[in-house]
Amino acid sequence: MSRHEVVTPIPGVFYRKPDPESPNFVKAGQAVAAEDTIGLVEVMKSFHPVPAGVAGKVVDYIVEGESVVDAGQAVLALEVER
Amino acid sequence: MTVELRTAGLSTTIQDSGRSGYYNVGIPPSGALDQYSLTAANYLVGNPADAAVLECAYMGPELHFTESTVVAVTGADMPPRLNGEPRPQWESFPVSSGDVLDFGFITAGARAYVGVVGGIDVPEALGSRSTYATAGLGGLDGRPLAAGDVLPIGQSRSAIAGRTVPEDLRPKFSKDLEVRVVMGLYDHVLTPDGRKTFLDTIWTLTPVADRTGFRYTGGKLELIERTPPFGAGQDPSNIVDAPYPIGSIQVPGGVEPILLHRDAVSGGGYMMVGTVISVDLDVVGQSAPNTRTQFVEVSLDEALDARRAYRKRIQRLAESCS
């Protein structure tokens, strides 16, 4: 196993959950597929899903919900098969 | 020849210098939000200044070329890659049939521009190829581009790769901006303190920012006590409906100023406290969320001086790229 960091491809405001009342998209220990959404980034009046990109097991989020992120910034850590 | 989009990026649109002359009937100018970078992209590939290019917001597309040509990427810092190999910005470079151009993560600015020899040759709508997506006008079917779209490219003359914009003619993108405004036409609705707050506040750009308008947070403007004029509605920031200039800053309720850009609505009932001078609209168009912005008051004469200086800079750009 090795650590993989999921990065957001766009800058904006990062959200861990789809809406304020819902739980986070993923939680520690959970298995995710490459196409699974792990968060949202808000920019240009709309919310864009951030996919995991690779299959793996969630370690934890790296940034807080509603924090400002740059493009290329790591937002979630995964454990992936080498 | 054609260029195919394998992926579209976040919001990639066809833009030129804009569609002037129809704002009175509700159709805004549209066109590249950063007109300087549009002009540079065109000069670098030997096009007229106002040819149509791709405006790529925050994330670039993946472009597949079917013939050899020359391209140039200007605007936001978004590193181009040709078949995975780095290519420079602010410099024209050749591409061959079968090549794929894509982009790394954006590191500064908000919008990159891709110029191709001959320009993007979609049909003109009301005299412009610019996309005004709200009304489905211009561009390719009036919409942002999507994966699989095939873009017609205009007749190309022989183009020269390796043209470069000199360092001192390249814009620098900062997260701390000063944007010049001419105050008015409704700043009299503010108290002297409210006016001072507007100019002294370091406003922060929110994610609520697109080609239509840019919304900021940071303060509350104090308004004079008055009875709203007939037809203006109840909020003290309301006015009798009036035309909105491009670059005008409206402040509904005295909070969260909205700066209108080139896809703006043409009029409405919010007081406009000032208007960004035309040459500073480029730098606004390149600001990303969280950019700290101070509005600096200038006189109309100073605004016109700035416009003359801008035109000289464009002239130098033309000379250095020829």
TrEMBL record, chain A:
Keyword rRNA processing: no
GO molecular function: acetyl-CoA carboxylase activity
Biological classification of the source: Bacteria, Bacillati, Actinomycetota, Actinomycetes, Pseudonocardiales
GO cellular component term of the entry, any: acetyl-CoA carboxylase complex
InterPro entries membership: AcCoA_biotinCC (IPR001249), Biotin_lipoyl (IPR000089), Single_hybrid_motif (IPR011053)
Function comment: This protein is a component of the acetyl coenzyme A carboxylase complex; first, biotin carboxylase catalyzes the carboxylation of the carrier protein and then the transcarboxylase transfers the carboxyl group to form malonyl-CoA.
UniProt name for this protein: Biotin carboxyl carrier protein of acetyl-CoA carboxylase
Claim: Lipid metabolism is one of the keywords in the record: yes
Record's keyword terms, sorted: Biotin, Fatty acid biosynthesis, Fatty acid metabolism, Lipid biosynthesis, Lipid metabolism
Pathways involved: Lipid metabolism; fatty acid biosynthesis
Superkingdom of source: Bacteria
Organism annotation: Haloechinothrix alba
Domain annotation Lipoyl-binding: ranges: 1-79
Gene Ontology BP annotations: fatty acid biosynthetic process
Pfam families: Biotin_lipoyl
UniProtKB/TrEMBL annotation, chain B:
Domain Carboxyltransferase: 24-313
UniProt xrefs under InterPro entries: CT_A_B, Cyclophilin-like_dom_sf, PxpC
Keywords, sorted A to Z: ATP-binding, Hydrolase, Nucleotide-binding
Listed SMART domains: AHS2
GO terms assigned for molecular function: ATP binding; hydrolase activity
Highest taxon listed in the record's lineage: Bacteria
Designated name of the protein: Biotin-dependent carboxylase uncharacterized domain-containing protein
Organism of derivation: Haloechinothrix alba
